[in-house]
Amino acid sequence: MYKRLVFCGLCFVNYIMCEKIQDKITNPRVCVIGAGVAGLSSARYLKEEGINFTVLECTRYVGGTWRYDPRVGTDENGLPLHTSMYKHLRTNLPKPTMELNGYRLPDDTPSYPSWERYYKYLKDIAEHFDLEKHIKFLHLVVSVKRIDNVWKVKHKHVITGEEFNEDYDYVLIGTGHHSKPNRPVIKGEEKFKGTIIHSHDYRTPEPYAHRRVLIIGAGPSGMEISLVVAEVASRLVHSHHSPAKFDATFFPSVYVKRPDVQELNETGVVFVDGSFEEVDDVILCTGYEYDYPFLDSSSGLTFSTISVVPLYKYMVNIHEPSMVFMGLVVRACLVVAIDAQARYATALIKGNFTLPSKEEMMADWQSHVDNLLAKGRSLKDIHILADKEDAYYEDLTRESGIARVPPVLFKIRDMDMKAKIKNLFTYRNYVYTVLDNETFTRRLQDESTTSNNTVM
Question: Cα separations (Å) of 240 from 15, 215, 237, 254, 257?
Answer without folding.
Answer: 44, 9, 10, 17, 8
